[in-house]
Design goal:
It is a single chain. The protein has 65 residues and is an all-alpha fold. It has one domain. It has helices spanning 13-23, 27-49, 60-63. Helix 1 crosses helix 2 (27-49). The model has no long low-confidence stretch (mean pLDDT 93).
Length: 65
Amino acid sequence: MGQVRKITANIPEDILENAQRVTGKGVTLTLVEGLKALDRNARLSALRRLRGKVAFALDLDRTRR
C-alpha cells in the first residue's frame, strides 16, 4: 500500500455507515476503497476524453504469429 498518512476527517455518519455496509469493511478500509474508486473514475474519464484522438493501427495477422 505504500506510505500511510494519518488523517482526521469529519464524515457524515449516515454516509460512512452506508459505505461500510456496502464494503463490509471497517472505516479505514472503506475510505481507502472509496478513494481508489475516485482515482479509477478520474483515470477512466481521462481515457474517455482521448477517444478518437489517438491513431492506432494493428495488423492482426502479424500479431498472431
